[in-house]
Design a protein that fits this description.
Blueprint lengths: L2 E8 L2 E9 L4 E6 L10 H7 L3 E6 L16 H14 L5 E6 L1 H12 L4 E7 L11 H6 L3 H7 L1 H10 L5 H12 L19 E6 L7 H10 L3 E6 L6 H4 L1 H13 L6
Parallel strand pairs: 3-4, 3-5, 5-6, 6-7, 7-8
Antiparallel strand pairs: 1-2, 2-4
Length: 258
Amino acid sequence: MNKQSAFADINGALLHYELSGTQDGFPLVMIHGGLGSTRDLDVIAEYLSDHFRLISIDLRGQGKSHLGNAALSYAQYQSDIQALLSKLEIFQYALFGFSDGGIVAYRLAAHNPGQVTRLVTLGSSWRLEENDPAIETLQSLTVERWSEMFPEDVAYYNASNPAPDFAALVAAVKTLWLDTSETGYPCNLVTQIKCPTLIMRGDNDFLFSLEEAVALKAQITDASFANIPFASHAAHQELPELVCPAIQQFFLTPGGTN
């Protein structure tokens, strides 16, 4: 799959994005998870590249994107992506987000109902309740622990980011994960999502529970739900042969974007 790598000056930070797929196809924006990069979604892009114009974005401070001076928040990510798409003159698009990327995608779809035509999220929470067991997991995360779990991802970040400081990035992202203010999770904003939506999670996902997924489905007018067996948080990487065809079918279903 051929990729065109590019940068854009957005909200005081130089953001990296990649263009691939069918250049005259309908735009499909792809957003990776926290402490990740565009390459994490390559396995999904392989299934979609023949059908869509793919725009995959490194979130502020991650992958090859500069951090800038703004504090990290889901609202800031949303603002960055809206500004980038406007710069690219993309005003109607389908949207995929994994984990943090899906949380940003909820916000984008809720605030831009006339622009987002279809939405798929994987492992993406929509709120953080006081008793959510994920809080302890998020609070206890350390640079050392993440580096042990994802050594290749950390090595890629250190080698490719223009100003790598992984300890500072982890601290900023942890603050974002625990933000329960209006700049954080979309919460009741999800009721404003009007496009067909597919909510996905791995059956053993320790961050996005089955109960929360079912509650979210009830909040969105036109929502479908897929619980992926034998998988945890990064189900698209663990079982691409199950996850990717489902995503492809949802985006290509008659009445969708094509």
